[in-house]
Design goal:
The chain is an alpha/beta fold and about 270 residues long. It is about 30% helix and about 25% strand.
């Protein structure tokens, strides 16, 4: 992977080499973590904290990227309200995305310029980590040129989307990120046109591995999160600390909640 900095200024002679601190935050409402992302991104831009990776499972929600067309939301406002699903427009790139139980969401809060990271290789690293996570469960996923995210059989008769990607970079710091379908209820994905492309089929690790769950499980998402975390840290060649590293065991529910409260202050 080419990590040579090309941000329009002089090359970074000594890019930062500090660790990436990963945290599993459990099942959290979208707006809470959206606010936390922005807080952490601002703190990272001000060099008050180091790089972070947030691993989440969200309650059901639909988010729209900056240029996303609401016509790709296939449910009416009344139908969404009946199901308790909020529709939120956010500042990331990409189209409309469904988040919900059974899906791994990862938000990298990383100072790309300070790391000497280019945007395109950074995006490829996120896609690669999704692909590697799928492979750990025996699922052959891959990138698809021109369509960010991760896919199964992208050049076949029925390409299936298994992971979505949409990031935002402000003051050289990334936030927002990826959503990888571990074992969600795929019926919920009928609410939207995946990638803004009518007719695209969504799939999951559980379905492709031939063992769909009766209902989504946070434990399965947490297991996938640990694999993704290690794969992503390796892809961008950084040392990993916290969740997913060998030195720290998986946290319990109380520790997950405490991580939300203390993450911003950790250096």
């Amino acid at each position: 992977m080419d990590l040579t900095p090309r941000f329009g200024g002089p090359p970074i002679d000594r890019p930062e080499r500090g660790p990436l601190l990963a945290a599993w935050l459990g099942r959290r409402p979208y707006r809470e973590i959206w606010a936390l992302q922005r807080e952490l991104a601002a703190a990272r831009a001000a060099d008050q904290i180091g790089d972070r990776l947030l691993l989440i499972e969200h309650d059901a929600v639909l988010t729209l990227g900056r240029q996303a067309d609401e016509a790709h939301v296939r449910a009416t406002a009344a139908e969404l309200a009946d199901r308790g699903i909020e529709l939120i427009r956010v500042e990331r790139g990409g189209e409309v995305t469904y988040h919900g139980p059974g899906q791994l969401v990862a938000y990298p809060i990383i100072a790309l310029a300070r790391r000497g990271l280019l945007v395109r290789p950074f995006v490829r690293a996120l896609e690669s980590a999704m692909v590697d996570t799928c492979a750990a469960f025996g699922v052959a996923a891959t990138r698809r040129d021109g369509h960010p995210g991760s896919w199964v059989d992208p050049n076949g008769r029925e390409p299936r989307k298994i992971g979505a990607l949409g990031i935002r970079i402000e003051r050289g710091v990334s936030y927002h990120g990826i959503a990888l379908n571990v074992d969600p209820d795929l019926a919920d994905f009928d609410l939207v046109d995946a990638c803004g492309m009518p007719g695209v089929t969504s799939t999951s690790i559980a379905v492709e591995a031939g063992r769909p769950a009766e209902r989504p499980t946070t434990a399965a998402v947490k297991g996938a999160a640990a694999i993704f975390t290690r794969a992503f840290a390796a892809a961008i060649a950084v040392e990993l600390e916290g969740f997913g590293s060998d030195a720290v065991p998986p946290t319990g529910r109380a520790q997950d909640a405490a991580a939300v409260r203390t993450l911003a202050a950790a250096r």
